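It would be a great kindness if you could assist me with a short task in structural biology. A protein sequence and the C-alpha cells that stand for its backbone fold form the material at issue. I should value your view on which stretches of the chain appear to form regular backbone elements. The record follows directly beneath this note.
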Amino acid sequence: MKFLLSPVAGIGATVLGMLAWLGELTLFALSGLSHVVRPPFYPRLVGRAFMEIGFYSIPVVALTALFTGMVLALQSYTGFSRFGAESAIASVVVLSVTRELGPVLAGLMVAGRAGGAMAAELGTMRVTDQIDALSTLSTEPMKYLVAPRLLAGIIALPLLVVLADILGVLGGFLVATQKLGFTPDTYLISTLTNLRSDDVVSGLIKAAVFGFIIALMGCFHGYRSRGGAQGVGAATTSAVVSASILILALDYILTQVLFIK
C-alpha cells in the first residue's frame, strides 16, 4: 500500500509546492505594484533601472531585430516564390515583426541580459545582508529596490520594441531591395499599405507586459536568494528561465485576447 501511495504523495507535494510558489509570486507582484503608485518615489532609481534595462540592451535588441527581419524576408521569398506570391513579402515582414517577433525577441533578449543582472544584484544584496540593513535604516526594500525596476521595465521594453520594429522592417527592406529584386518604392508602399496602428499598439501592449514580467522575475528570484554564491547563481538562472517561459506563454494568451474576436 505504501508503495502505491508514494507516487501520489510525490505528485501532491509537487502541486502544493507550485501553488505555494505561485502564491508567493502573486503577493510579491502586488506588493511591488502597490509601491509603484504610492509615495515616496525615487525617480533617480527609476532612471538608473531604465538605463540598465533599456539603454544598455539597445545593441543586442537592435542586432537581433535587424537580422530577424533579413532572415524573415529571405525565408518568405523562398516559400512564396513557389506560389507566385512574392508581392506578399513586405506585408508578412511588417506584420510578423510588429505583432510577434519584435516584442517576443526583444523580451527574450532583455530577459537574458537585464533579468539575470537584476537577480544577481538583488541576490548578492540578500546574501550579504544589505537588504536587511535597508530595513534597519527604516527604508522599505520593496519600495527602494523592486518598485523602480518594475516601473522601468514597463517603460523601457515598449521603447525597445519600437526600435526593434523599425530595424526589423529595415532588415527586410534591405534584403528585398538589394538581393530579391524589389524596387524601394514598391516595397515601401506595400509595407505602409498593410501596416495598421492596431498591429503596432498590440505589440507595445505585449512589450509592457513582458517588461513587467522580466523585472518581476529578476527581482523575485534575487530577493528570495539564499545560500551564498551558489544561491545567487541559481537565482539568476531561475530568473532568466522563468521569465522566458512566461513571455512565451503570455504571448499566446495576449495574442488570443488581442486578435481573436
In short: Residues 2-259 form one domain. The chain has nine helices and no strands. The chain has a mean pLDDT of 87. The first helix runs from residue 2 to 37.
